[in-house]
Design a protein that fits this description.
Layout lengths: L2 H45 L4 E7 L6 E8 L5 E9 L7 H12 L1 E4 L4 E8 H4 L7 E10 L2 E2 L3 E6 L14 H9 L4 H25 L1
Antiparallel strand pairs: 1-2, 2-5, 3-4, 3-6, 6-7, 6-8
């Protein structure tokens, strides 16, 4: 075979290999672009889904009772929401028992940002047993893109044992305290405290001069 022919064949083979490599690279880039698009689409879906949860919490007003709390921390409305507790709580406030039974059958919707509280009972009643009291919470709901994955986790009432009681208080409790008619002893103590405070401030002012 003459040299020009050999050179032509080599050039043709190299050109063919380069074309094949270009096609493979192009397909790889298309696949990567599709994968990235799907990832971005999934991120958008996940960020737009409701996040429904349930918990047992110390009551923030008195710190001595436990509450059943459910909420939606996501940005969209959750529909067809069901909460199941296994085993059931047992001897709890009757209104809360009725509410939990209703949640087991399903709630029509739970808007974003909503948090609802129900009283379970006093901590000393709910934690009389010294052993563990695990309860499995199972949550199902539907978001704007269809059914959400089933959420299942365990909470234990005895986790609150030996916890410090630190009520936050509330304006409602303050209003109740103010509304209560004070006794003569209360008025006398308050008057004395205000008088001492006024004297202290007067002394501080004279020192500052």
């Amino acid at each position: 075979m003459e040299l020009p022919t050999v050179v032509a064949v080599v050039i043709a083979v190299v050109s063919l290999l380069l074309n094949i490599a270009a096609v493979l690279i192009s397909k790889s880039q298309v696949a990567a672009a599709k994968s990235q698009t799907e990832v971005q689409r999934q991120i958008h879906r996940d960020s737009s889904q409701p996040y429904v949860w349930a918990d047992i919490r110390l009551n923030p007003d008195d710190g001595a009772t436990l509450d059943w709390v459910v909420g939606n921390s996501g940005p969209t409305v959750a529909t067809d929401v069901t909460f199941r507790v296994d085993p059931p709580f047992g001897d709890i406030h009757p209104l809360t028992s009725a509410a939990i039974e209703r949640m087991t059958n399903g709630m029509a919707s739970l808007p974003p940002g909503r948090i609802n509280w129900w009283r379970l009972g006093a901590t000393y009643d709910l934690m009389k047993s010294t052993g563990p009291q695990p309860r499995t919470i199972t949550i199902d709901a539907t978001g704007p893109f269809g059914a959400l994955p089933t959420l299942e986790y365990v909470v234990d009432i005895t986790d609150f044992r030996e916890a410090n009681v630190h009520p936050d208080g509330s304006l409602h409790l303050l209003a109740k305290a103010v509304d209560r008619r004070p006794s003569a002893k209360d008025v006398s103590a308050l008057t004395g405290a205000l008088h001492r405070l006024a004297e202290q401030r007067a002394d501080d002012s004279s020192i500052g001069e």
